[in-house]
């Protein structure tokens, strides 16, 4: 007798009518035929389908000095509501995550209040040799912001030796906010691509321009360890349309781009050239967004997965970039509905709904997608076979810290 059985349209390599059986939190069997009984059986209706839950590699959970923007609780509830069961937190916290002690404190904070599994990026410590302790304290990757890129080689080399991944926000600091700002990303990417050594694992976060995209695709031909991440706001919305919708609140780093950049990024996404789709969920209050010097970034965890499914209309692509590859990258058994994998799964329902930031559970409610239609809603979310969210109600189940 299995713990749970789910029967209906299921994405497992392709979309087909399947029985998925769960035992002790793990997918035990996936079959076209019924193979046994279960303590609980869920029968999906014709407008529902079962997909793997998503892993989001780029999320600002906030809290600490930024708790007015977002708390770990509000951010991870949003994740769950959006079908995301693993998040990778970013280190530009208040205070910034630059010491082993802060990493330990952050692990404790998130463990005690998160609704989903998590891992941590850390910032550059005072000296590269402290990276050993950062890793021991629980960081899985090192994040370079534009201010840190000057020290890239020194730290990336050390990180690589320790098995810590490097993640770069590629924008040339000196150009940000100047007339030459449009070149900030490409310049930084060109310089980094020259400096990266073959053995370093380097992920380019939120790539936003066609020029940078092409450069990185070129670099990927030489190194299988270079990876590329895109965010929903860069791949689905151009600057002009966003400004029409939300004006100055369109601010984000890197900035929103032209229709041409967006269509080239979108084409790369549907052509399976992009490694990861990640929200860059970056919450700010309404007042911080609508002011003369607006804070950059948007919340997106609640809509990212249904939005991706709506835009690419191919679960194979959606699952690759938001479930399978991010989980493989973290070395966790998630992202697939197949035996041996954690039973982290989402029931999607075909359902037309308008995106309304004011309905977000995230404390941040300004979205570049305001008024757009989603073709799906997230009906149920399972974490290791436990029902963690049903009809919009998140529940706390036991969560893991991934190192
Ligand atoms: O838009 C952004 N928001 N880009 C960043 O690099 C930081 C982030 C934030 O933390 O708000
Ligand atoms: Zn970010």
Task: Write a concise synopsis of the structure shown.
Helices cover 30% and strands 26% of the residues.
Shape: globular
β-strand amount = 25-35%
E-strand count: 17
Structural class by sheet pairing and helices: alpha/beta
DSSP helix fraction: 25-40%
Order of helices and strands: EEEEEEHEHEHEHEHEHEHHHEHHHEEEE
The number of helices is: 12
Radius of gyration: 20 Å
3D structure, described in words:
The protein is of the alpha/beta class and 403 residues long. Helices cover 30% and strands 26% of the residues. The chain has helices at residues 72-81, 100-113, 131-137, 152-162, 184-195, 210-222, 232-236, 239-246, 259-270, 286-289, 304-312, 315-330, and strands at residues 2-12, 14-23, 26-31, 38-43, 48-52, 54-59, 84-89, 117-122, 139-144, 165-168, 202-204, 226-230, 276-277, 345-354, 373-383, 386-390, 393-394. The strands form three sheets. It has an eight-stranded parallel beta sheet. The protein has a five-stranded antiparallel beta sheet with strand order 5-14-15-16-17. A hairpin with a 2-residue loop joins β15 (373-383) and β16 (386-390). The protein is globular, with a radius of gyration of 20 Å. Bound molecules: (4S)-2,6-dioxohexahydropyrimidine-4-carboxylic acid and zinc ion. Zinc ion binds at residues 58, 60, 90, 280, 282. The site of (4S)-2,6-dioxohexahydropyrimidine-4-carboxylic acid has 8 residues, from loops.
């Amino acid at each position: 007798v299995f713990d749970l059985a789910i029967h209906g349209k299921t994405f497992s390599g392709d979309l087909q009518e399947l029985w998925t059986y769960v035992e002790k939190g793990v997918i035990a069997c996936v079959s076209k035929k019924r193979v046994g009984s279960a303590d609980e059986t869920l029968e999906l209706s014709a407008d529902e389908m079962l997909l793997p839950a998503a892993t989001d590699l780029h999320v600002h959970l906030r809290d600490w000095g930024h708790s007015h923007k977002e708390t770990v609780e509000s951010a991870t509830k949003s994740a769950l509501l959006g079908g995301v069961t693993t998040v990778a937190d970013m280190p530009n916290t208040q205070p910034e995550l630059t010491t082993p002690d802060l990493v330990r404190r952050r692990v404790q904070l998130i463990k005690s209040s998160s609704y989903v599994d998590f891992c941590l990026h850390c910032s550059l410590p005072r000296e590269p040799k402290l990276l050993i302790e950062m890793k021991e304290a629980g960081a899985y990757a090192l994040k370079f912001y534009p201010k840190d890129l000057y020290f890239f080689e020194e730290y990336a080399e050390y990180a690589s030796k320790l098995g810590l991944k490097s993640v770069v926000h590629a924008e040339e600091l000196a150009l940000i906010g100047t007339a030459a700002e449009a070149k900030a990303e490409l310049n930084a990417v060109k310089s980094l691509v020259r400096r990266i050594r073959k053995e370093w694992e380097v992920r380019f976060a939120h790539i936003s321009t066609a020029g940078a995209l092409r450069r990185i695709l070129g670099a990927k031909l030489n190194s299988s360890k270079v990876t590329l991440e895109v965010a929903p706001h860069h791949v689905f919305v151009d600057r002009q349309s966003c400004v029409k919708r939300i004006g100055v609140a369109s601010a984000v780093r890197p900035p929103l781009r032209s229709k041409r950049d967006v269509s080239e990024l979108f084409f790369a996404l549907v052509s399976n050239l992009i490694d990861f789709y990640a929200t860059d969920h970056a919450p700010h209050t309404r007042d911080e967004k609508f002011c003369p010097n607006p804070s950059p970034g948007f919340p997106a965890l609640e809509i990212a997965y249904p939005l991706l499914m709506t835009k690419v209309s191919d679960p194979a692509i959606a699952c690759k970039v938001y479930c399978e590859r991010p989980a493989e990258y973290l070395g966790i058994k998630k992202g697939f509905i197949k035996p041996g994998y954690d039973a982290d799964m989402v029931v999607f329902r075909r359902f037309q709904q308008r995106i309304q930031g004011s309905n977000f559970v995230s404390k941040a409610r300004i979205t570049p997608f305001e008024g757009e239609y989603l073709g799906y809603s997230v009906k149920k979310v399972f974490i290791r076979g436990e029902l963690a969210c049903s009809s919009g109600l998140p529940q706390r189940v036991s969560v893991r810290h991934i190192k």
